[in-house]
Amino acid sequence: MNELQGVQTLFNKLEKRLEDTAYIGDKQLGYKDILKIQLGLDDTAFEVLYFDELEEYLENPQDFHLYYDDSRVDWIEVWEHLNIVEQELNNVAEVVK
């Protein structure tokens, strides 16, 4: 679990960076849906990380998938994808400067 905690930490960091993008003025525009689109994760991985349920997922992954669905989240792939998203955000931040 400790090595996968980095996935949750990176998700939380990116969520913090993107949280203001779901607002126009003082109105929130589907924050969770916008964040999901911006991060580009599959439904299960996003839900597990959004609700901070990584430990529960690792203990009982079948509880997070449809009945007869033997697929599992590839957390290494998620980690790599989130790193790409972070790099893209960093590149945009550099251009804006």
Topology at a glance:
Elements: H1 2-18, E1 23-24, E2 27-28, H2 31-39, H3 43-50, H4 54-59, H5 75-96
Antiparallel strand pairs: 1-2
Helix pairs in contact: 1-5
Task: Compose a concise summary of this entry.
This protein is mainly alpha-helical. Helix content is 64%, strand content 4%.
Task: Describe the protein's architecture and organization.
The structure is a single chain. The protein has one domain (2-96). It has helices at 2-18, 31-39, 43-50, 54-59, 75-96; strands spanning 23-24, 27-28. Strands 1-2 form a two-stranded antiparallel sheet. It starts with a helix and ends with a helix. It contains five helices and two strands, in the order αββαααα. Helix content is 64%, strand content 4%. With 97 residues, the chain is mostly helical. 10% of the residues are buried. The model has no long low-confidence stretch (mean pLDDT 88).
- Largest sheet, if any? 2 strands, antiparallel
Point out poorly predicted stretches. none
How many distinct folded domains? Answer: 1
Radius of gyration: 15 Å
N-to-C SSE series?
HEEHHHH
Write down how many β-strands occur, each being a DSSP E stretch of 2 or more residues: 2
Q: Termini, distance in Å?
A: 37 Å
Large-scale geometry: globular
Structural class: mainly alpha
What is the typical, i.e. mean, pLDDT?
88
Bin the helical content. Answer: 55-70%
- Order of neighbouring strands in the sheet with most strands: 1-2
> What is the number of helical segments per DSSP (H or I, 4+ residues)?
5
Percent range for β-strand residues: under 5%
